């Protein structure tokens, strides 16, 4: 099993800091930027501590955690301010893959069974303040938790006692030395959270020491690629979320290996005859999600997370000059949803006389909810009919009214698809 690097973010007063208490700590005004930086630099997950106080502060922190989950592109663990089952629910609904129960608080120990059975043990991390607490709660922790979190040093006491993966909060020491211990499955804290720490470099050092970590390694050797007359392989670059084709570039063996090592798309510039890491001067980096070789071994398809524009002209994609186009219906499911949703949102901003959509918005939330309920019932009735055409019609009606509800409550398809993907 790969060992994990899990940098942490501390939230307080609407701001975020990495490596709290360390010399590298630097306050950020945008928690999303810090989360995105961690996600793009090689983090396997991110641990977020909510240090807020009053309820209003806590609600703001939940909003920040939701933004972090959307920006990070890696799983998020939520911790802090958990006092009841509802607090765990808020963290998970905000987008966290897991939530932490702090067993330093005796009242949280009684929550474990309830939240584990409600959300699943894989969603629950238990923080253990000392070995005495673990011994008292051992049976429940082993049965109902998916991971344990402890301070640096305590992993020695847990060795041989727990079957669960141990996440260690470490503020000192080199990450590759700490992960070399068989007692540690994952590492968090200042040791992996400094803004200047290159997590891909940390993983490279771990790999060199035989420590299993999640890195980019090609399943096919470069020697098996078919090169063109210049000794290069063309690489088609695609947005990993939308499928949009962004650009075409070329790779040699060195740029291919550098891409694997750094997690950033690196090419061979034919015009300058040099290595070219996309974004090094513009800031528009391309972070690798996957690399795939075609059937002839002569073309690479890269799916990436693109920052900013892919094209030097400032366009999102290099493919923007239309040569010809035949009219056709775009049947890409998500694109259809987005197109219909865009019309609905436009109606809300720019009302149109006689529009049924504007009629619903004018009548308000109760009318919208009534229609959603009615359409739900129509689906149930249609499902009893052997003719599937009727149920297709009713589901389409239902989805339209749900999109009106989404626009009214400011929920987007991006948020919905992220939630479905997370599940």
From TrEMBL:
Which interval of the chain is the signal sequence? none
Spans annotated as Phosphoribosyl-AMP cyclohydrolase: 1-336
Q: Cellular component terms, GO, for this chain's entry?
A: cytoplasm
Q: Which domain of life does this protein belong to?
A: Bacteria
Record localization: Cytoplasm
Does ATP-binding show up as a keyword for this record?
yes
- Cite the entry's keywords alphabetically: Amino-acid biosynthesis, ATP-binding, Cytoplasm, Histidine biosynthesis, Hydrolase, Multifunctional enzyme, Nucleotide-binding
The GO biological-process annotations, alphabetized, read as: L-histidine biosynthetic process
Where the protein is mainly located, per its record? cytoplasm
The region called Phosphoribosyl-ATP pyrophosphohydrolase is annotated at: 337-423
InterPro entries reported in the protein's UniProt record: Aldolase_TIM, His_biosynth, His_synth_HisIE, HisE, PRA-CH, PRib-ATP_PPHydrolase-like, PRib_AMP_CycHydrolase_dom, PRib_AMP_CycHydrolase_sf
The record lists the catalysed reaction(s) as: 1-(5-phospho-beta-D-ribosyl)-ATP + H2O = 1-(5-phospho-beta-D-ribosyl)-5'-AMP + diphosphate + H(+); 1-(5-phospho-beta-D-ribosyl)-5'-AMP + H2O = 1-(5-phospho-beta-D-ribosyl)-5-[(5-phospho-beta-D-ribosylamino)methylideneamino]imidazole-4-carboxamide
Q: What is its EC number?
A: 3.5.4.19, 3.6.1.31
Q: Where is the Phosphoribosyl-AMP cyclohydrolase domain?
A: 247-320
GO molecular function annotation: ATP binding; phosphoribosyl-AMP cyclohydrolase activity; phosphoribosyl-ATP diphosphatase activity
The UniProt entry, under Gene3D superfamilies, shows: Aldolase class I, MazG-like, Phosphoribosyl-AMP cyclohydrolase
Q: Does the keyword ATP-binding apply?
A: yes
* SUPFAM superfamilies per record: all-alpha NTP pyrophosphatases (SSF101386), HisI-like (SSF141734), Ribulose-phoshate binding barrel (SSF51366)
Pathway per the UniProt entry: Amino-acid biosynthesis; L-histidine biosynthesis; L-histidine from 5-phospho-alpha-D-ribose 1-diphosphate: step 3/9; Amino-acid biosynthesis; L-histidine biosynthesis; L-histidine from 5-phospho-alpha-D-ribose 1-diphosphate: step 2/9
Q: Give the UniProt family note.
A: In the C-terminal section; belongs to the PRA-PH family. In the N-terminal section; belongs to the PRA-CH family.
Q: Which PANTHER family match?
A: HISTIDINE BIOSYNTHESIS BIFUNCTIONAL PROTEIN, HISTIDINE BIOSYNTHESIS BIFUNCTIONAL PROTEIN HIS7
Protein name from the UniProt record: Histidine biosynthesis bifunctional protein HisIE
């Amino acid at each position: 099993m790969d060992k994990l690097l899990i940098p942490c973010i501390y939230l307080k007063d609407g701001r975020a800091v990495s490596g709290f208490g360390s010399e590298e700590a630097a306050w950020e005004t945008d928690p999303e930027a810090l989360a995105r930086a961690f996600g793009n630099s090689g983090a396997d997950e991110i641990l977020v501590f909510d240090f807020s106080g009053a309820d209003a502060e806590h609600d703001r922190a939940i909003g920040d955690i939701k933004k972090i989950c959307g920006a990070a592109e890696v799983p998020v663990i939520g911790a802090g301010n958990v006092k009841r089952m509802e607090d765990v629910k808020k963290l998970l609904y905000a987008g966290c893959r897991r939530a932490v129960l702090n067993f330093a608080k005796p009242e949280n120990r009684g929550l474990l069974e309830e939240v584990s059975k409600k959300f699943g043990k894989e969603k629950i991390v238990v923080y253990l303040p000392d070995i005495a607490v673990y011994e008292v709660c051992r049976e429940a922790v082993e049965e109902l938790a998916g991971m344990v979190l402890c301070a640096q040093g305590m992993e020695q006491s847990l060795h041989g006692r727990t079957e669960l993966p141990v996440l260690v909060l470490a503020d000192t020491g080199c990450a590759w030395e700490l992960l070399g211990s068989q007692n540690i499955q994952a590492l968090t804290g200042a040791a992996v959270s400094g803004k200047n720490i290159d997590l891909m470099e940390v993983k490279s050092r771990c790999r060199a020491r035989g420590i299993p970590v999640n890195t980019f390694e090609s399943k096919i050797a470069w020697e098996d690629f078919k090169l063109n007359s210049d000794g290069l392989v063309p690489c088609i670059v695609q947005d990993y979320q939308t499928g949009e084709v962004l650009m075409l570039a070329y790779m040699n063996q060195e740029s291919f290996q550098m891409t694997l090592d750094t997690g950033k798309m690196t090419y061979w510039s034919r015009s300058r005859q040099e290595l070219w890491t996309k974004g090094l001067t513009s800031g528009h980096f391309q972070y690798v999600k996957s690399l795939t070789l075609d059937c002839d071994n002569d073309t690479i398809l890269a799916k990436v997370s693109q920052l900013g524009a892919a094209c030097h002209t400032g366009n999102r994609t290099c493919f923007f000059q239309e040569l010809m186009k035949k009219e056709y219906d775009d049947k890409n499911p998500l694109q259809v949803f987005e197109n219909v949703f865009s019309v609905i949102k436009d109606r809300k901003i720019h009302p149109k006389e006689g529009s049924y959509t504007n009629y619903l918005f004018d009548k308000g939330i109760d009318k919208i909810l009534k229609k959603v309920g009615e359409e739900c019932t129509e689906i149930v009735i249609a499902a009893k009919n052997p003719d599937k055409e009727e149920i297709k019609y009713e589901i389409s009606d239902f989805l339209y009214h749900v999109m009106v509800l989404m626009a009214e409550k400011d929920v987007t398809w991006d948020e919905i698809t992220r939630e479905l993907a997370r599940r």
